[in-house]
Amino acid sequence: MKIKTFVLMWLRRFKTMVRYRLLVLTSVPIFLTLLTLIAITFYWTVTYTWQNALMNVKADLAVAHHSMVLLKKEQRMELQALANSYDFQRRLRSDDIKLRQWVHQQNQQYQLDFVVLHSVEDIGMFSASEQRLLRAGKDQTFFQVLDRRALFELNHDLPARAQLPLLQEGTIEQKGLVSRSLVPIFNQQGELKWILDGGILLNNSTSLVDRIRDLVYAADTLPKGSLGTVTLFMGDVRISTNVPLDSANLIGRAVGTRVSKEVQQQVLQQGNTFVDRAFVYDSWYVSAYEPLHGNDGTVVGMLYTGYLQWPLIERYLTNIIEMSVSILLVLLLTSIIVYRGARDLFLPIEKIYQVAKAVQMGLKKRVGKLDLCDGHELQILGEQFDSMLDQLEQRNGLIKLAAIELEEKVEQRTQSLHHKTEELEQHIRLLHQARSKLVATEKLAALGELTAGIAHEVNNPIAVILGNIELIQLELGDDTVDVQDELTAIHLQIDRIRNITRSLLQYSRQGGVQDEVTWHYLNLIVEESLTLVRSGTKKMDVQFEVNLAAKCSVEVNRHQLLQVLVNLQMNGIHAMDDKGLLKITTSDWVDDHGETLGAMVAITDHGCGISEHNMKRIFDPFFTTRRSGTGLGLSVSQSIVANVGGEITVESIEGQGSTFIVYLKHKKESPSELDLLVTV
């Protein structure tokens, strides 16, 4: 009975008293909203966290894949560097047996596990597709699984290094996964003569997977306590990994263990990429696998990246707990504020209700006429407030609408003025740049006319020289053997002069030097330029100090760059009055962030130097301080270097000497928008 009376009392209060009704009507929506927010937050957090984890590990796999692509590219470039080296080319023309022995000893110098030179008669050892690419003169790099005998033929040390104890089976894996590159070598008649075979063994290559892991999982990129791992598989066997044997204590490496059946079926058998949680040896990891294909398209292994799943779950649970506690505290605080606010706000209204009840009882108290329904004490007060609020809302709405329209107009005008100002500044900047380009273009146009005349005039005596050389060879017959090297050198220099005149004609016709641009190592071109300069300065008292340290290849035209280097070196020798020390230094071109942009060569003389007045004009066409000079060397050199995206700088102290530095990009840059505008 008491319980029924208590319930009826509170029901009557909720129906007749505003304070309790407002408390319920405000608290229940807040409570339901917070519960809904908690549910949505839990669902969104779970979904987003897991999807984000999968996207991250997929991005990690992409970085690891790119690292393997770069590894294959570096490996192929090492073999190409060996093939293009002076020692290789010299031995190639002398003794085949010594050449093979010498090549077999170069693996350490070129950071390869094996380097072998095969004769063209051994081409049958390669597949049909590999033979077709070799005969077409194309390099190739691919993954390949080799047995113990094949590894021994490449390098006697490889079989021992490739052995992998299979921990769960008690046997030893004898095969090895190699990254192999083939470079064809042709003779002077264009026939395939040799096949340069080199690569690295991926079995037990802990330094490689650790390097990729450090690149993929940099410091502070994973949750605290997590572990980023990278693995190379041969088939389903881990041959190189930093997955620990004990994930809890981070002990050992799980080399010689196999991948799970689910991953094996999806990646090795179906050739698909696997991105999901996977059990890796002794713990669950957020994992990503992709197949490694051989040269024939078959799957020979896998590349894996992943990190421990538990730290991610632990961090997620911690966030959920913290969020839940925060929401509950907010709910408690909100309930207290609503209750206190309702009680303090409606106590005066309850007093008005009591006065109205007293007036109904005949007392002398007056608060105005209250037209109330049964149990509702705010009817008249509500009507009054509703009327006032409607009027105020209507007026406020008109004021706000006018204010919004005014703000939109001001904002539109401000944005329009800002855009116009930016466009004007951009046009002024482009006009200034275009004016500078036009001045340079007018100078180069005059240079083009002059170079065209020079090129046509030089071609006539060259034709006479070539005809006489061919006549000498015809008359001497077999006696040309004694001077064959000299005649070959003359033919090479005639070809070089023809290339130069052809470049001059292209320069005069199209406003810039255009020729074949390919990849070259800067040191080789510098050495060739030194050979030419030394041969022309034998009677001069000139000493050369050479330091060639550049490793990065550059994309240039070899003949044109050779012309630039010879011109700069001869300018330095002339500045020293044909005697003194000329320094030539090469190094990699590195920016402020340590990224390699290309290579650079510095040519330093100890001559008369360049005055500050002449420093601004040295690259202008026809400007020279020598009586016998034409003033075209530096201008043409600057055009050649600029055409491949490089630049030439000069530092000089009058009376002490000058240093010209040529910066060359690793990859040639496309012409800028402003250059195209000026050309039009």
Question: What are the low-pLDDT stretches, counting only 5+ consecutive residues below 50?
Answer: 366-372, 382-390, 510-514, 672-680
Calculate the mean pLDDT score and round it: 80
**Rough outline:** flat
**Biggest sheet layout:** 5 strands, antiparallel
Give the neighbour order of strands across the main sheet.
8-7-11-10-9
Summarize the structure.
The chain crosses the membrane at residues 20-44. The chain is of the alpha+beta class and 680 residues long.
Describe the structure.
By secondary structure, the chain is of the alpha+beta class. Among the domains are: 65-311, no CATH class; 517-665, Histidine kinase-like ATPase, C-terminal domain (Heat Shock Protein 90, 2-Layer Sandwich), CATH 3.30.565. It contains 17 helices and 18 strands. The strands form five sheets. It has a five-stranded antiparallel beta sheet. Strand 3 and strand 4 (171-173) form a beta hairpin. Helix 2 packs across helix 8, helix 11 crosses helix 12 and helix 13 (522-536) packs across helix 14. It is flat, with a radius of gyration of 41 Å. The N and C termini lie far apart (101 Å). Mean pLDDT is 80; it is low at 366-372, 382-390, 510-514 and 672-680. GO terms for molecular function: phosphorelay sensor kinase activity. One of its GO terms (cellular component) is plasma membrane. The chain crosses the membrane at residues 20-44.
